[in-house]
Protein 1
Amino acid sequence: YRSKHVGRNIVTTFEATLQDEQTLALEHELREGLSNGEITVYYQPQIDLSSGIIVGVEALVRWLHPSRGLLPPGEFIQLAEECGLIVELGETVLRMACLEMKRWEQQGISYETVWVNLSPRQFQSPDLLSSIQTILRETGLPPTSLGLEITESLAMKNTDQIMNKLHQLRDLGVRIAIDDFGTGYSSLSYLQQFPINVIKVDKSFTKLSSDEQNPRFIVTAILALARELNLRVIAEGMEHIEQIHWMRQEGCDYAQGYVVARPMTPELLSETYLELSDR
Ligand code: C2E
Ligand code: CA
Ligand code: CA
Ligand code: CA
């Protein structure tokens, strides 16, 4: 028994070491990737449900890994957050997104807002404000064209520190959205204290299956609340045209999802946009 036990411990230790090594290797690769320009950004449009026009785009990071191909954020954001690379990664995405908006503008394409995801650690970094100011100044993008998405779970911590940061960002003129709304089980009364513009209803609530776990009245209630608080609402994860119809009928402002368009390169997005407006 004893030797078996010891043996298991050795195996466990070995596995842990192997995992540490893999993590370290990936961290090293990500650091390299950042300086080699392997980080790229895809954009997914958001449409106005009453006009069908693209009003905004969400910037979604991708890593063009030299051997593993195009990696989605699920493969590296967590690691970046843990090893602190997220601040640099986030700045890279912010800068690219602001530059891209200026480029679209020069092509005669004007979206109202480019939305960028902020990770908790990035949001809490003391340099966030100054780095956003620098990026806006250097790219010449008006602050009102930049939106920042923070997750509900971060926002709802509702500490003075987070509240101050949100107010400072709002004073800069940038727009703020609460991402994945509905998943944080937050007290809704907090919502009215927050200096935000938009809530993004998480895709788990917009599925339209009328099962008990996913009742439609939750979305209806969120929309009513948003109207009271004068917030705009984006429905996320729209995969079927029926969802779009229902959301429009319920008075939701904007929609985003595969049925509208998948995230894509900025080049493809401008081609698609020009094609649509040619019709
Ligand atoms: P998110 O912010 O909730 O972004 C929406 C995710 O849903 C994206 O996945 C998008 O591709 C996907 N999606 C869009 N439409 C549909 C749909 O109709 N159905 C389904 N099932 N999914 C849809 P993606 O690009 O893999 O990003 C995953 C998450 O990674 C994001 O979730 C966000 O939390 C994070 N992320 C992405 N880019 C960044 C970034 O630059 N910085 C940080 N900190 N996080 C990022
Ligand atoms: Ca988001
Ligand atoms: Ca989301
Ligand atoms: Ca999410």
Protein 2
Amino acid sequence: MDQTGALDALLHEERVFRPLPQMVIEANLNPHELEQAQEQANRDFLSYWEDAAHELDWFKKWDQVLDDSNAPHYRWFPGARCNIVYNALDRHIETANKNKLALIWEGEPGDQRKYTYYELYREVNRFANALRSLGVAKGDRVVLYMPLLPETTIAMLAVAKIGAVHSMIYGGFSAKVLRERINDAKAKLVVTADGFYRNGRVVNLKQIVDEALLGACAECVETCVVVHRANVDAEMHEPRDLWYEDLVRRERPSSPTEVMDADDPLFLLYSSGTTGKPKGIVHSHAGYMVGINRTLNWVFDLKPTDIFWCTADTGWITGHSYVIYGPLVAGTTTVMYEGHPLYPQADRLWDVVARYGVTILYTSPTLIRMLMRFGTQYPRQKDLSTLRLLGSVGEPINPEAWVWLHKHIGGAKCPIMDTWWQTETGMFMISPLPISPLKPGSVNKALPGVEADVVDREGNPVPAGKGGFLVIKKPWPAMMSGIDNDPERYENTYWKKIPGMYFAGDVARKDEDGYIWIQGRADDVLNIAGHRIGTAEVESALVAHRFVNEAAVIGIPDTIKGEVAKAFVILTDGWEAEYDTSEDLVSALKNHVRRELGPVAVLKSLEFRTTLPKTRSGKIMRRILKAEELGEDVGDTSTLEDLD
Ligand code: ATP
Ligand code: MG
């Protein structure tokens, strides 16, 4: 960045949506309480997080809230003993939650399974016993290569219950990725399924596992447990492969919960790989459970009657923190859907919401934009009146998509919680609360107990309205405990770029009201004739045009301007009726961007595409577009979405 470290702020979004009075009256956290929480967190953030920790059950309380003697290798709640699964299941069995629905699962073909807390507890115990009988012990690594099944939840919790460490690999990754990650983790056991349903087809998962295990390291994987799901002809290799159902049938439904030290690892999970090779992030029991419990309860304002649906895959951090662990620790009912959002047609999401009476829907901008293509015909046919809160995560949500979601899905009454966070942060960091005035496209402000800022390269705050690097200035409980086996990469990636602060890798700006706007990835910043521009604002301006459904912008070297911007655009149907040629449309789009953002954001060229390269978690991989454009090596593409 330049001397001031500033990025140009281009987007002028002035709409403000205030919460309805009823929402403010009913919110778990009213404005006065929020002010008190902020005040406490500012004065003494450790006491703030200590209070949050008291909401959970511990085998032994901590000696200290935070040990920062070896910063940036922070240790939260040292001396404490606990297990997140005790909080997600065991403790609920002693309360009125015992017979409450913990999990509602729906398969793509339409089959359903529901588990009360007590039923889920018993299933987890059975599988925990099975794991122990297979020789899996505290500290061992278990790879879960699973689609979205009830057994995925059960396996995760069972592994954690016995003190082992899970590494969940998204069920769409190739044998090569799976093998690498099995080897990296030195996993002893793999849990998978024979197959699963996706977009009307059956994916043969077991075959991929077989291929992966062929070349896996010798001392790894002794056992592969296979869940029956899709009746594919799975080849079972004796004595390595065992059917899940055969294993659990003979196990007792009670099982001791391992007592863990606060910073014993809970799971290993790879980041999405949007900006480069995925990083193996490690989270541990104590801080993680404190962080996700507090943030979920506050941001999504959980009530005893809520039906919470986060549409993320369990292979991502969002699935870990807010499909499985968060909702269960908080004692709510979580919904899980196996299949494709457009199967059998583009109303599946709305159908699931209507049938189960979903009250909170947490999803991603990429999915919203995909569904917007179909207009409002589908949501209009369903009863979405049970919804009271909406949420977005994963990428900047452009104001157009925000307003569409608010109006057509939320009936203009549901606030949208645009939550900014990362695999590394484990929990929501910057987000509105249901009582906050909302600005479409802004992630609002840091949550109490989190100190976020926008700074230049030296760490000085940049003035309001200017862009800079997004940083976190104090440790937070759900922070990663590190990168697997690589303390140096942990220090260099996150703590050395701007000394003394956590470098998030995103660029952002704060407006006059202190609202934070994510402008894109630090790696993707454009530099056009001395102007530094984040990609998100240009993309957002493009998507605001009614014939643009998705857009990705990159910078390409230019001898005069240093760099020029190129856009890749997915069009919506119907533009031919308005423009004679595609050249006419191109110049209309260029003019549109200039009008929206000013002359700085001039687009040199524009290319139409039918798809954009995305990670499996739905994020646009601009680095691939750029490498292709420049004829360079595209680097690690292991997490690229399969487009067939
Ligand atoms: P990698 O770190 O491997 O390149 P990744 O950053 O995409 O992959 P994740 O941890 O899944 O991996 O994603 C976190 C990133 O997602 C954030 O750094 C940010 O860029 C983006 N993000 C998440 N939520 C939001 C949001 N609400 N608004 C804008 N961007 C968001
Ligand atoms: Mg990242």
